[in-house]
Amino acid sequence: MTTLTSYLDQHSTNTELNDVITTVTNVGKTISQLLRKGALADILGEAGNQNVQGEEQKKLDVLANDLLLDALAENTHCAGVASEELDNATPANADGSLLVLFDPLDGSSNIDINMAVGTIFSILPYQRQGQTSENSDFLQAGNQQLAAGYLLYGTSTILALTITENVVMFSLDPDTGDYVLIEDNVQIDADTSEYAINSSNYRYWRAPMQQYIDELIAGEAGVRGRDFNTRWVAAMVGDVHRILCRGGLFTYPFDTKYAHKAGKLRLMYEANPMSLLIERAGGGATDAVNRILDIEPTDIHQRVPVVLGSKNEVDYVKNLHVNYSEK
Ligand SMILES: O=P(O)(O)OC[C@H]1O[C@](O)(COP(=O)(O)O)[C@@H](O)[C@@H]1O
Ligand SMILES: [Mg+2]
Ligand SMILES: [Mg+2]
């Protein structure tokens, strides 16, 4: 049996990175326990405030954020944290060599209905050791990530992680509290007939995305010549996990629903860590034009269109966008 601790010892000589991953995944155990108790732990419902993005915060959004923040503040290797739920990055220990970014609770609309939610994290190098970290220190492209992963709190709690060229998965053993290795080299098939999108936004999409979904819905009778199936967890972490398990395409594309957003998902807390996992598992991840991991961020809370999953299908969507220009 390989536990997370023994895996990190065997595969990474960066003990500081290993220590920070251990801190994050230990918080995941606490969140997992709280979710098991649900209403009995008084974790459901609204917190009564909005985050920096103007979204209503759930109690668990706040709780998960605070748990991660407190734990990482104690970790001497963590120089600062940036979270979807906080206006600005929070400095931690100036001598630390690592920056941690997270979506503490992904899939907030699933919390109160007892459906899958998760925690997504990304770890970047800190370049100014000895000085207090600021927002600008976090503005690094996703290709700089030293590690990325997610915790999926589903029927069991799963950790997906990449610190080497491989993507690995662990299952949390509730009896021992250990993360136990269950997959040591996750690979995604290049082809798929399954896709995930919130189609209620159809009228806000660009023409190539509308065309793409029209083609999938036409199925056997259309240009694709085969039927496609839809799945939508309403938590990116759940949709990405399904894709790592059996392939598929996930997209939250560019839309004009809200003028100030290029899409719903956040580059630093969602798109970058998920793109690293997907690419290392052999898939593709794009904003429909550019590789997500090569986007140079200008704001820690920036949004980005996301198309990721089985390589050939992602390339198909990209090709549809090649000659598209905004009218
Ligand atoms: O409610 P919609 O528009 O279908 O959006 C669902 C998407 O929003 C998200 O829940 C956003 O994440 P948060 O819950 O962290 O805000 C994604 O996980 C998911 O893919
Ligand atoms: Mg999220
Ligand atoms: Mg969230």
Automatic annotation (TrEMBL):
Record-listed Mg(2+) 2 binding positions: D103, D106, E270
Keyword set includes Flavoprotein: no
GO molecular function: fructose 1,6-bisphosphate 1-phosphatase activity; magnesium ion binding
Domain Fructose-1-6-bisphosphatase class I N-terminal: start-end pairs: 12-183
Annotated residues for binding of Mg(2+) 1: E84, D103, L105
Protein source organism: Psychrobacter fozii
GO cellular component, as recorded: cytosol
InterPro entries in the cross-refs: FBPase_C_dom, FBPase_class-1, FBPase_N, FBPtase
Name by which UniProt lists this protein: Fructose-1,6-bisphosphatase class 1
Gene name, Swiss-Prot/TrEMBL: fbp
Subcellular location(s) of the protein: Cytoplasm
Residue numbers binding substrate: D106, G107, S108, S109, N198, K264
Pathway noted in the entry: Carbohydrate biosynthesis
Protein origin, superkingdom: Bacteria
Family: Belongs to the FBPase class 1 family.
Catalytic activity: beta-D-fructose 1,6-bisphosphate + H2O = beta-D-fructose 6-phosphate + phosphate
Cofactor section: Mg(2+)
Keywords noted in UniProt: Carbohydrate metabolism, Cytoplasm, Hydrolase, Magnesium, Metal-binding
EC number(s) reported in the record: 3.1.3.11
